[in-house]
Amino acid sequence: MNERDFMQDNGKPAIADQLRAFIRQKFKIPEQDGEFNDDVHLFDYGYVDSFGAVELTTFVEKTFGTRISETDLVAYPLNTINEIADFVWKRQKGAV
Amino acid sequence: MGMTLIPLNAIDRDYLSQLDYALSFVSEDVRSYRIIDNPLAIELDLVSESSKESVLRKVQELVQRYERREFGLPSKVHFEQRRELKPINAWEELISRRWVTPVGQGHVILRGPAAQLAGLVEAKVDAIARTFAAEREVYPATILCKTLDRIHHFTSFPEHIDFVAHLKGDLDVLNRFSTECREAGWSPAAQDGRMADADFAICPSCCYHCYEGMENWDLAPPGRCTTMAVACHRYEGANHRTMSRLRAFTQRDVVWVGHPRFAVESRAKAEDLIVQWAREWELTGALETANDMFFTQDYAVKASFQRQQQAKKELRLLIPQEGQSISVFSSNFHAMTFGKAFNIQVGGRPASSACVGWGYERWVYALFSQFGLEVEKWPQALKREFQAFQAAKP
Question: Which structural domain, as residue segments, surrounds residue B120?
């Protein structure tokens, strides 16, 4: 089973796991940060800035084969790990 | 040689003003340029035919940054106020009365009522800073290039840095330079090959020293608020004009560094205060979402992100004579950009930051442009405050 098949089988939680690990590592979020969770607003809480947004969209495209377009940014809430994972999962299923 | 036309086939009109701004930096082989309509195109006046191929390649590269966007720049207006205003050529009038004297590209001296009006704006900003118990800091006008590099300034805005350099510490170099200046007067050629490496730049923004000055600090929650005024520089090519876009300007900021909620909520409170100010002075303009003029290939993603997240807002005031508005106040949320760059901690995590800033010269220009130079004809609140300020500080 390749990575794409695995994630489609495991759905949103697997995508969220990958996103969470990437964001923690890339943006140097310490383990003891009690405010970081899958529903925290990544931007309002300062974890991701405009430089980080470029890296995050590139990661999503390379890892999940899902391009986040400018239209998507406007049309869908993509501010939390859960929201991004939900979007990627639905896009892979052709639902959005 | 004749004009060269480059059609603009796939560009959203929302991006035209930003393309127009950026074209100023495309090549020094462009004598002048303008964007024309029907059909939409860039009209270039080139210095020489031999540079045409190179210039066209650069223009196409720049145009591609703004082309094929899937939607215009998302914008939200948070406050808007309009009055009937007649065009006033404040620039010419201010120069004629010697309240303003241009002293080089994008450089002005303010004096008399123009200087007093800048003082009044500063007093108003002081009052706002006091509501946040902002701690005043005093900064140098120059900043280490290494600091700008650490905060990615060079990769976002390479076009507008004014570097600071001095002549090499070498007796022969200094003697030749002073001799040539004495004999023939100064010219750029007198410096050729004689400058030391530039390790500083003139501050392109007001608040950068604030963050580097707090390197390795561990802040008590929720954080701290500071305020500062800095003489800033931004080289903006052919975009310098009147007092709308100066190369040398005075910026005053209030900055919050700490927990993200502290930064976000303080910034929102400052926005409420600027709206109240705009209402009291009957200013024609709007507080709206904005983006920085990132001079990079990934401009679109960064600009879209900034606007989507409301990371930048500007109070833009109409200049009736110019048929455009100018930003006189900006409100910015930086997330952890500076907290991480300088290891500023709060509550065990990198601090977030936000700042609000006022450009004094632009305020002065916008006020004279909207209301004229006769104080008696100004809106009541502005007139009352200005006359009280003059009486207190003649």
Answer: 77-143+204-392
